[in-house]
Write the structure tokens for this entry.
Amino acid sequence: NAGVTQTPKFQVLKTGQSMTLQCAQDMNHNSMYWYRQDPGMGLRLIYYSASEGTTDKGEVPNGYNVSRLNKREFSLRLESAAPSQTSVYFCASSTEHSYEQYFGPGTRLTVT
Amino acid sequence: TQLLEQSPQFLSIQEGENLTVYCNSSSVFSSLQWYRQEPGEGPVLLVTVVTGGEVKKLKRLTFQFGDARKDSSLHITAAQPGDTGLYLCAASNTGNQFYFGTGTSLTVIP
């Protein structure tokens, strides 16, 4: 079992460029999440998906869109990247209404 | 505004010492989790507590959930260099929305 995988591991974008961060899990989990981690801020929830076909905003959704492609995959899209979106992005998954999340290794994004 | 406040933010101790990390909130939560994160990796779940006053032990780590379910503590006995990392608390009411603390960066010096 690979658990939660994320691609790419590193990315550098110029302001205004777009990109999609990919996440996949092989644990048959219903719920998936996208977080960003910034120094001194902990992890903040961007979007989550409680089940296939549903998505909901978290704490900091502005500037992002998500797609729950199927039960395994949950992608995060930046349509027009801004320097404020420089961060480390983590995807996580859990069973439905479980308090236990499993995290991927992260994507380090720099926007110049 | 940070929903969960952790203290201290940084902690550097000698191998063999004991330490306690705190996670405090003004809100009541159904559950609270503790994670450890190493550089370049995602957080890894250590424990979940759901009952006010609950105490859980994981080898040398002791976790307590406050009676009012607003705060928690993590106590490490006889710290070892392998305990070095970022300790994060997280809390939830719904099992969908999770709020994380700012983290405590622990360094254990051999």
Summary: Residues 19 and 76 of chain B are 5 Å apart (CA to CA). Chain B is about 0% helix and 55% strand.
